[in-house]
Amino acid sequence: MTTIAVLGNGRVGGNLAAALTRAGHEVTVADRTPGAAVAAARTAQIVINATPGAGSLDLFVALREELRGKILVDVSNATVDAPDGLPADLLYPGSSLAEQLQEALPETRVVKTLNTMLFPVMTAPATLTRAPDAFLSGEDPKAKQTVREVLIDLGWREEWITDLGGIQSARATEAAILFVPHVIRSSGFVPFAISIAR
Ligand SMILES: NC(=O)c1ccc[n+]([C@@H]2O[C@H](COP(=O)([O-])OP(=O)(O)OC[C@H]3O[C@@H](n4cnc5c(N)ncnc54)[C@H](OP(=O)(O)O)[C@@H]3O)[C@@H](O)[C@H]2O)c1
């Protein structure tokens, strides 16, 4: 059992919090209520970023003290959005939100994962017609191992989890967001994951 704080109570945060609770973890969800994020992050061993990527850097830099020594699992995507609300471009071209977070929070171990799929897949990967990939990016092998175990609790199989390497590899998975508006416009809001065929 791990104590996990989920920041953001939307589609991703609510779905992850429910599944992690079902898996036996002690989960706190923080919304915008003043003080909620600080209180949740302070007591957690792992903190999950499920907030809109454009505001994530400011939000998590303000939690520097609470995040010291902890794992920050970043599942968000930082985008510039089109008028229809779908992602249109990257907010950090030539970098990534995960790299920005890791640089700003050197005493926190940032692990990027689960940002390459629609939210229902995060907690039900076995429901797709083909096995999806969950990618891991981060500097700390132990932190990535801990996050791997959390993914397994969410229904991911070992062979579906691919460690891409250091935090800079999040640049690749964050760029995969550029597929999303086109897939949704062409196929509708059907759960999918961006995966590597082998
Ligand atoms: N939806 C997907 O399928 C999907 C898949 C992969 C990755 N992602 C990424 O996951 C993140 C969340 O996506 P989502 O679809 O769950 O968005 P969402 O439904 O809009 O939820 C975002 C939540 O974050 C909350 N929030 C915003 N600022 C906050 C703050 N400062 N403190 C605490 N909570 C705050 C929002 O609250 P308010 O309602 O008050 O604004 C909202 O409840 C995004 O970065 C997105 O790119 C989404």
What report would you give on this structure?
There is one protein chain. 36% of the residues lie in helices and 20% in strands. With 198 residues, it is an alpha/beta fold. The chain has a seven-stranded mixed β-sheet, with helices on both faces. A two-stranded antiparallel ribbon has the order 5-6. β5 and β6 (87-90) form a beta hairpin. The mean pLDDT is 97. It binds NADP nicotinamide-adenine-dinucleotide phosphate. Residues 7-13, 30-32, 37, 50-53, 55, 59, 75-77, 115, 118-119 line the site of NADP nicotinamide-adenine-dinucleotide phosphate.
CATH architecture: 3-Layer(aba) Sandwich
Bound molecules: NADP nicotinamide-adenine-dinucleotide phosphate
pLDDT averaged residue by residue: 97
Basic shape: globular
- Give a count of the beta strands, DSSP E runs of length 2 or more: 9
> SSE string, helix = H, strand = E?
EHEHEHHEEEHEHEHEHH
Count of runs of 4 or more consecutive helical residues: 9
CA-atom Rg in angstroms: 15 Å
What are the key terms here?
Rossmann fold; 9 helices; globular; 198 residues; two-stranded antiparallel sheet; seven-stranded mixed β-sheet; binds NADP nicotinamide-adenine-dinucleotide phosphate; alpha/beta
Task: Write a concise synopsis of the structure shown.
With 198 residues, the protein is α/β, with parallel strands linked by helices.
Describe the secondary-structure layout.
Blueprint: E1 3-7, H1 11-22, E2 26-30, H2 36-43, E3 46-49, H3 53-61, H4 64-67, E4 71-74, E5 79-81, E6 87-90, H5 97-104, E7 109-112, H6 119-122, E8 134-138, H7 141-153, E9 161-165, H8 170-175, H9 180-187
Parallel strand pairs: 1-2, 1-3, 3-4, 4-7, 8-9
Antiparallel strand pairs: 5-6, 7-8
